[in-house]
Predict the 3D structure of the following.
Amino acid sequence: MSMLPSPLWRRLAIASLPPASDNGRALPERHGTPMRTSFAQFRLPLLALVLALASTGCSSLPPPTNELSGARQAVIRAEGADADQYAAQDIGAARSELEQAQAAMSDGREDDARRLALAAAADADLAYAKSRDALVSAELNQRRSEVAELRQRLQTGDGR
């Protein structure tokens, strides 16, 4: 065996050893010496990452047309639930913010338009909820009154 060159002799000696184990799990085999990572090996992925980050930094959000549409629908829904009567302040704020959002959109201030449209939708939803709460409470009070009247009739025997 002394006639074999040194690197080949090492490979044969390592290959003839039984595989090492760690708690019953076999360790991965290594052949030869580990290679050093060079810049050329990760240059392309690094370039792709830099370009992807640069392109996302330069892009902007689409115009807030969906937000404006959602705010309009929320205001209409609140108006349909009599928000003018039960939540006048909230529906007024929603209308004002919607008008401001539309003005900001026409001026090209899309970020302001988006923020105002979302605020208008939130205020309109609050007005809708308050209006529905008032309507349901009024209906509940009416039903309670009817039940009380029926109980009184039953007690006095004046059911007819």
Summary: The CA atoms of residues 58 and 87 lie 42 Å apart. The beta strands are 21-22, 25-26.
